[in-house]
Amino acid sequence: MSYLPRKNKLSIISFAIYSGILTVIEIIAVWISVQILQISRAIASGEEIPSIQNHYVDKLLQDLQISQKLFVLGLVAFVFFLFRSLFQILLNKKLLQNLGESAAQLSAIGIGNIVKQNIFAGNHNRLGELEYSLTTGIDKAILTIVGSFSILISDILLILVILVYLFFYDITTAGILFLFGVTSFLVVNRFATRKLKSIGRTKAKLDITLSGEFRDTLSIAGEARNTKFFSDIVLNVKNVRVRQGYLYSLQTIFPYISKYVLELGFLFFAGLLTSYKLATGSISDAASAVGLLFLGGSRLTPALLRAQQSSQAIIGALGPAEQALTTIKFSEDLAQKIETRQFKSPPKIQVRNLDFNWSKDNPIFSNLNIDFPAQQLTCIIGKTGIGKTTLLRLLMGDLKPNSGHIVFSFENESTLDSSSLVYVPQEPHLMSGDLARNLFLSENDFQNRINEIKNLLIKLDLNRLLNIVDVNLNHSKSEKNILNQLSKGEKQRLGLARALLQKANFFILDEPTSALDVRTAKVTIQTILELKERATIITVSHDENLFSKSDSIINLNELNKF
Ligand SMILES: Nc1ncnc2c1ncn2[C@@H]1O[C@H](COP(=O)(O)OP(=O)(O)OP(=O)(O)O)[C@@H](O)[C@H]1O
Ligand SMILES: [Mg+2]
Q: What is the rounded CA–CA span in Å between residue 494 and residue 438?
């Protein structure tokens, strides 16, 4: 807790003071209620009306008739109870806000330390766990555990105060209520906490998986534009969310079961006790009825408040829900589109009078005209920052030109569909999970195309990965870590391997050999050249080995006016 800022330390002290005030209000309100009960009981049983157990209050009210006295006492008790509820709502809100602030600060400090230690360069799964514990985990621990704990203490205080007074008032009633309360609390708690703990653990694991899925989806969005694999990830996200929703409902329902068991039990015992006392005549009907009403009322008020809070929470959640539903609808449409994409013939691409600038002070292209012939390898060269990657992104449709056109034409007159396009960025992203996933293949495709995959890995000099092909087939976890240890050059070729496994006819490769030595670059280039049988290839490269093998070279230094 040394991370807690001074402001929050102070607010914890003020919380203790608030709690003290709250307890005093509770004691006064319950004391007044007991006075009312004692007077009512005396009236009902025809006994002598007792004086109020406080000299000053008794004196203050002595001139009033008995009904007026009861009315004033009732009104004051009501105001105290009301004040207590309002005070507690404000206090809890303030406390939770402060705790939220602490959680945010702890997360920020933790993330800062981790970035400093450079742990982010490591294992994807570990990263997911870290991310979870620093964000959601800390929030949950602080807001839920500490927040609920403070509310629990305040509730226990209230129960204690009521029970102590009840013991003075009627030892049998208090005794039975106390015994019932303690046993049912322990039984329900024992049953529910075990279940809730395991639900919490499973939910945390799902949260970690989900954040990994999101991270992967975002990081491969550029590369996996062309594959059904992307829609598998969307489906995965949906499945995890469905399981999360199920667990969430269990988590919400369980505490309510305990609440209803307790409430029903209390009402049942109160009824039983009242009938028993009525039958034995040891207490008057009026006092029992008032007692029962008091008990019912004290249960009803919090229940009403909670119902109101729930409905407000639902209304409050409608705004974000609407936004989320629109987004989900959009991704479903996207997933469907991806699945219906078809294979087309290699395109010829013509760039005509193209202008592009990132901003007014950063113009990149002006009146650019280039032809990329079908089924050829065209290499784009130019100094760093000239706009090579920008041009590739314009060709992919990721960026829109300010003016001018990019025209795709095909021998068979069909139009370009993005399933035919594969993009390999300068630094391909690796995902969490196994080799199949990192090749953008479903489990089935991976099994069916195993020989093709092995041959491609050998061709690209990725023999090291051959071991994990078998590991992957056996679903063994032990050697998958190799994927986290790949060098820059190996990652680059894995990115190429997954691109080559796509049935595409338009390949865009951004510096595919930049991290390779001469020998490895040569074998890789050979594999790229074989693609010409079925595809148009556009590549950016500074590698002489690559542009010397190209059919044509586009030099942006000469074409670009800026
Ligand atoms: N998202 C962006 N927003 C604004 N400016 C950008 C963005 N991406 C690139 N630029 C700018 O556009 C110019 C061209 O960048 P680009 O990445 O296309 O260069 P490049 O030729 O691929 O360089 P390199 O050889 O280093 O990869 C640079 O000045 C860069 O700062
Ligand atoms: Mg670039």
A: 8
Taking CA atoms only, the protein residue closest to ligand 1 atom 9 is 390
Non-local (6+) Cβ contacts of 555 within 8 A are 381, 382
Q: Which homologous superfamily is 347-430+486-559 in?
A: P-loop containing nucleotide triphosphate hydrolases (3.40.50.300)
Residues of the chain with CATH 3.40.50.300: 347-430+486-559
Distance 515 CA to ligand 1 centre (A): 19
Ligand 2 mean position to 464 CA, how many Å? 28
Q: What distance in Å separates the CA atoms of residue 512 and residue 541, rounded to the nearest whole number? A: 7
Question: What letter does residue 222 receive in the DSSP assignment?
Answer: T
- Distance between CA 419 and CA 421 in Å, rounded? 5
**Nearest CA owner, ligand 1 atom 28:** 385
Q: What is the pLDDT along the chain (562 residues), one digit of tens a residue?
A: 344 444 555 466 777 777 788 878 878 888 888 888 788 778 877 788 888 878 888 888 888 888 888 889 989 988 987 888 788 777 777 777 777 777 777 767 766 665 555 444 455 556 667 677 777 777 777 766 766 666 677 777 777 777 777 777 677 777 777 787 777 777 777 777 778 788 888 888 888 888 878 777 777 777 776 666 777 777 788 888 888 888 888 877 776 776 677 667 766 776 676 667 666 665 555 565 556 556 655 655 565 555 566 566 667 667 666 766 666 666 556 555 544 334 467 888 999 999 999 988 888 999 999 999 999 999 999 999 999 999 999 998 878 899 999 988 877 655 555 557 888 988 888 887 788 888 888 888 888 999 999 999 998 888 888 877 776 666 655 555 677 778 888 989 999 999 999 888 889 999 999 988 888 899 899 999 999 988 999 999 988 889 899 999 999 988 765 5
Q: Is-contact 357 402, C-beta < 8 A?
A: yes
- Distance from CA of residue 511 to its chain's centroid? 36
105 alpha carbon to ligand 2 midpoint, in Å? Answer: 37
pTM, to two decimals = 0.63
Q: Taking Cα atoms as reference points, which of 88, 117, 102, 70 lies closest to residue 26?
A: 88
